[in-house]
Design a protein that fits this description.
Layout: H1 6-23, E1 32-33, H2 48-82, H3 98-127, E2 134-141, E3 144-149, E4 159-163, E5 185-188, E6 193-199, E7 206-210, E8 215-219, E9 225-229, E10 235-241, E11 253-259, H4 261-274
Parallel strand pairs: 1-10, 2-6, 5-11
Antiparallel strand pairs: 2-3, 3-4, 6-9, 7-8, 7-10, 10-11
Helix pairs in contact: 1-4, 2-3
Length: 294
C-alpha cells in the first residue's frame, strides 16, 4: 500500500484538517456520501445524474427484474408439478409451437426497448458535458490518486497534490477505515465540475467512481476521459477505484468535500500555498478556469 512519505503525508493531512476546522467545519454536519451498515439500495445521490440513475434502477429495472424472476419461478414450479413422471407418465412429443416461439422472441424485444429508451437518455446526459465552472484533472497512480487544479485568470489554482489513504494502523476515531485520505479534493456546491481523468503512463487502468455523484469513468494511461457532476448539497462524498488494478486496488479511496463558493475560494488560496511545491505545468483540455466563474 502506498502509505508512503508517511511523516510528510501525515503532517500535510494535519495541516489540511486544521485548515478545514475554519473553512469547512459546517460541512461535517452535512450528509456523508457513503454506505452505512444494513443499508439497502444505492447510496443516495446528490446530482441530477445520480437521481436519474436511482430512478432508472428503482422504478424501471427493479420492477422488470422482479416480474421476470417471479414469472420464471412460476414456470419452474408449474413444470415440476405438471410434468413430473408421476403426473405425466407419457411425455409429450411436441417439438414446435409457432405462437410460443413468436412470444419468446417478441416479448424480450419489447422489454429491451422499454429499458433502452431511458438508458440511452441517461447515457446522453452523462456523456454530453455542459459548460464547466470548475475543472479538475484526476490521475490514477499505483496506488493513489492525484488532483490538479489549473490556474485561472485571477491567479488562483495552479497546483497539484496526491491523495493517499490514511495509515490504517493509526486511524483516528472519527475517520473511516479504507475510505478517508490525507488530502481531500474540494469543489463548490451547485457548480458544474468537469473531471478530466487519466492514469500514469507507466501505470495500469483504474476506474474512478463516486456513487453519490453518479460518476464512473475509467482512468486509462495515455487517454484523457471526461465526465462531470453538479453537487446539490455540501458534505463529504466517498468513492473508490472499481477496477481490479493490482495489489493495492483496495487502498485507493476517493474523497470529495463539497463546500460553499466562499469556502471554496478560501480553500484555493490556502491550498495554493500548501501545495506550492507541487505546481503542475499540465495544460487542461477545454479548461478555462479552476475557480467559479463570475
Amino acid at each position: 500500500m502506498k502509505q508512503g512519505k508517511t511523516g510528510a503525508a501525515c503532517r500535510k493531512g494535519l495541516l489540511a484538517a486544521s485548515a478545514f476546522a475554519m473553512i469547512g467545519g459546517s460541512a461535517l454536519a452535512q450528509e456523508v456520501g457513503r454506505g452505512f451498515p444494513n443499508q439497502m439500495g444505492l447510496i443516495p445521490g446528490v446530482t441530477s445524474i445520480a437521481h436519474e440513475i436511482d430512478f432508472f434502477h428503482n422504478v424501471i429495472l427493479l420492477p422488470i427484474i422482479t416480474v421476470i424472476s417471479l414469472f420464471v419461478l412460476g414456470l419452474l414450479v408449474y413444470t415440476m408439478v405438471r410434468f413430473n413422471e408421476k403426473a405425466n407418465p407419457v411425455p409429450s412429443k411436441t417439438t414446435h409451437h409457432t405462437g410460443l416461439e413468436v412470444a419468446w422472441t417478441v416479448i424480450p424485444v419489447m422489454i429491451l426497448v422499454v429499458m433502452a429508451i431511458p438508458s440511452f437518455r441517461l447515457l446522453t446526459h452523462q456523456l454530453v458535458l455542459p459548460d464547466a465552472d470548475v475543472t479538475v484533472k484526476v490521475s490514477g497512480k499505483q496506488w493513489y490518486w492525484s488532483y490538479a487544479y489549473p490556474k485561472d485568470n485571477a491567479g488562483a489554482g495552479g497546483f497539484e497534490f496526491d491523495s493517499n489513504i490514511l495509515d490504517q494502523a493509526a486511524l483516528p476515531a472519527d475517520k473511516l477505515r479504507l475510505l478517508d485520505v490525507d488530502n481531500e479534493a474540494v469543489v463548490p456546491v451547485n457548480k458544474t465540475v468537469r473531471l478530466q481523468v487519466t492514469a500514469d503512463a507507466v501505470g495500469v487502468i483504474h476506474s474512478f467512481v463516486v456513487q453519490s455523484f453518479g460518476v464512473r469513468v475509467d482512468a486509462v494511461p495515455g487517454r484523457l476521459n471526461e465526465t462531470w457532476f453538479k453537487a446539490e448539497k455540501e458534505g463529504i462524498y466517498y468513492g473508490q477505484c472499481s477496477k481490479i488494478c493490482g495489489k493495492d486496488h483496495a487502498y485507493m479511496p476517493i474523497v470529495f468535500r463539497v463546500v460553499s463558493e466562499e469556502k471554496y475560494k478560501e480553500w484555493l488560496e490556502k491550498a495554493a500555498k500548501e501545495f506550492a511545491s507541487h505546481e503542475s505545468p499540465v495544460k487542461f483540455a477545454g479548461a478555462e478556469s479552476a475557480t467559479v466563474r463570475q
